[in-house]
Structures are given as C-alpha cells and as structure tokens.
C-alpha cells in the first residue's frame, strides 16, 4: 500500500521542528529526514490499512513523552544526535498520528490536534473541514513546552 505522502509529511514535520530549534546543519537534517522516512516505511509495512484507516493507529503513532520515540531516536542516531540532545531540540510532549489519508499532531497533552495532511478516502466521505489553523501554527511556533490548561481541545467531527 502506498503511504509515501503520509510518511513524507510526518518526516518533514519532525525535520522542521529540528530546523526551527537550530544547531543542526542542513545536510544532517536531510539525512535525518531520509532515515526517519525509511524507519517509518519499514515499521508500518504490515500495519497500513487504507480500507480501515484507524486500524493500527496506535502502532503508527510517533510519541515523545519523557521517552524518545524509537523511530525518531534511530534516525537521530544516524546523524549523531543523542536522545539528550533531541529532548533539548524537540517538544517534550509530541504526538504524531500517521494514518492512511491523514497526518495530524498535538504538542503537549492538552494541545489542539492539528492536521498536517488530509486526503479524501477513495469511495469514502469527503474530507473533514479543518477548524482554526492559526492556533496550530502558533502552537508549534511557541510549542517548546506544554500549552497551558486554558487551551481548548479542538474536536473534529465527521
């Protein structure tokens, strides 16, 4: 099953977070992105279900929450970045969902869920309308720490 767009979107997002933090060269970032894409392709190979996009979602979830996600850790190791350095560069709490037809993320446990990529499912319902994008953009700009509890959870209903 083709998952190139979803994987490419997710890897580009994590790479952008690293670039925004600074201190990592462009060549290292390019290598990191390629290594992360390869690790994800391998990891998701038998866990990609376009007919049932939510199936296997937990398995495909990339998570940093006081523990470094093994896929990010592996790609970072290839360019010589330690877990300690990654924790300094990336948000301390990040959840990235990589599913068929949708890639979304949340920074902080109480942050808004922001959609990075969405495509209508073949023969499925039309794509969901995305709510406020500015809050998501602001969050990842600010987003080094968890957002305050005053953030509202963005719910997306279908």
UniProtKB/TrEMBL annotation:
GO cellular component term, pick one: nucleus
SMART domains: btg1 (SM00099)
Domain spans labelled Anti-proliferative protein: 90-109
InterPro entries attached to this UniProt entry: Anti_prolifrtn, BTG, BTG-like_sf
GO biological process assignments: negative regulation of cell population proliferation
Region forming the signal peptide: none
PANTHER family the record matches: ANTI-PROLIFERATIVE PROTEIN DOMAIN-CONTAINING PROTEIN, B-CELL TRANSLOCATION GENE
Record family assignment: Belongs to the BTG family.
Protein's recorded name: BTG1 protein
Species this chain originates from: Erpornis zantholeuca
Organism taxonomic ancestry: Eukaryota, Metazoa, Chordata, Craniata, Vertebrata
